[in-house]
Amino acid sequence: MNGLLRFVALAFALSLSAAEIPLGEEIYKQQCAICHERSSETRAPAPTAMRQMSPQAIVKALESGVMKQQGASLSAAQRNSVAAFLAAKAGAEPITTQGLCATTGPPLAQAWNGWSPGPSNNARFQRDTDITASNLSRLKLKWAFAFKETFVAFGQPSVVGGRLFVASANRNVYSLDAKSGCQHWAFQAEAPVRTAVTIASVEGRSLAFFGDLKATAYAVDSITGELVWAVKVDPHPKSRIAGSIVYHDGRIYVPITAAEEGPQLDPKYECCSARGGIAALDAKTGKQIWKTPTITEEAKRTGVNWAGTPTWGPSGASIWSAPTIDVERKLIYGATGDNFSKPSTKTSDAIIAFDLGTGKIVWTRQFTANDVFNMNPICRGSEKPPGCPDPNGPDFDFGASLILEKMPDGKRVLIGSQKSGHVHALDPDHDGEILWQARPGEGGTLGGIQWGSASDGKNVYAAVSDIRFKSAQLVDGKRKFGVDPQAGGGLHALDLMTGAKVWSAPPPQCGERPNCSPAQSAAVTAIPGVVFSGGVDGRLRAYSTRDGTVLWDFDTAREFAVVNGGSAKGGSMDGAGPAIAGGMLFVGSGYGIWGGLPGNVLLAFSLDGK
């Protein structure tokens, strides 16, 4: 660290006196604990996860990050006090420049560009790779990279040429050398970034596209990290870009997520008015070409809730995942989430086809009607006070990208995986007519198929979450939740033509591992003969596509020395899945949300570790 950075860190540490920590604890108990002490219900990070952050990073989140609304009611001194209480230590090292690249490494033989290897079908299947079912035993860790100042590793890695591009919750998007992990550049966005990075050549210039959790889309020079343009795609304060951006024919297509589930925990929040959608932007300039919300009607005042706060609706129908482009029919498909408030709409929990050129909705197929979900616990009882949906939920979003495939008989099929536990097969050439449906999971608010299935053109591979939590227990006067080590998990192969079960691999066993769930929430990745699935227990497993036998198993829930200085920890695997290019596999580990194991590491594997 240079002298100026040392001075800033020291000054911050000294400004946090011992007297402020009790004050911060009191503020935390009064204003923060309602969410963070019930992370399994609210999906907010638990205090143990936040202790992986420095006070500076916590203050930044409260001042201008995703916690800006909550931090707005606190003075600067109060924010500092809360940060002092939550952080592991004051004056933690900021992100360093250790591990910068001196040269550019050779390109890899294949690419993984965006959410899937290529831009076409989102099947998460890497056809050409040196990794095979017969040589998996040679797959060894080559290097590890730390996402400093965070407790999650949720960005899907992309590999193009000799570079790996990956986003992080610490606001940085990195360009690393794929072979060594050294850093070419780091670009800092306005908010955390969880999307994959999509690389495209635009009029001879290679650009990297991604979006942040404040709904800003970015184009950055992929060689230098220089900002080319940044555009806010939706003005609602709770809008985000959670799904990856896709590129096609000079345009980028940006999914819009309406993130109002968390704010509902505050009875003073006027729920809800945000809508999901897709925006098409000119890739060169960022200029909007069209934007289509998933709910055509703008929210109107509908009444008041039990606290007398105005209520609004309709809302929700977010698009959480990368859209899927259908070049043959000139359509782009998006899968939506639930409604946040009444009235319910026909476009929630649905698959929607948009015209690629104009954004006009061509057809809609809904799978769970009247799914209006409010996260506030008061809405979960048998008696629903004013402002609560009745019934509440069941929160059966589509969080996974749609897969567009050709079946062995040449017929095309659009595959959607849902939190209800269902896998749906639709006919994209006949307005989404249902071809078959299967239900490998039970489903739930964090259940079913969470973030992504894979297809090799013969089978669909679906990993099931179905995570469950034990009943709350009082420990030192606090309500404590824990994951159920006997509930959830399992990987299933379904015949692409019929949906019939080909095989099912049982959930992994937790054994004596503490705070362990067998749930398999992360997106899966397939290569010929093998499908990879990361678990909430922190293990990455490779299964045979023939019968579901586990061929390889690596425990990521431990500490690693990292190429950018110091160490990092792995934890639960959730959200993104492995990216495979050439003879290398790249995957993030750590997901300190809803009771998951925190971590902040990117792992790179190669055959024989070379």
Q: What distinguishing features does this structure have?
A:
610 residues, mainly beta, Lipocalin, Thrombin, subunit H, 3 domains, four-stranded antiparallel beta sheet, 7 helices, 10% helix, 31% strand, globular, disordered N terminus
Written account of the structure:
The chain has about 600 residues and is mainly beta. It has three domains: about 5-85, no CATH class; about 120-150 and about 400-610, Beta Barrel (Lipocalin); about 235-245 and about 245-400, Thrombin, subunit H (Beta Barrel), CATH 2.40.10. Strands 10, 11, 12, 13 and 14 form a five-stranded antiparallel sheet that branches. Helix 2 (about 20-35) packs across helix 7 and helix 5 crosses helix 7 (about 75-85). The radius of gyration is 23 Å and the shape is globular. The model is unreliable at about 1-15 and about 90-95 (pLDDT under 50).
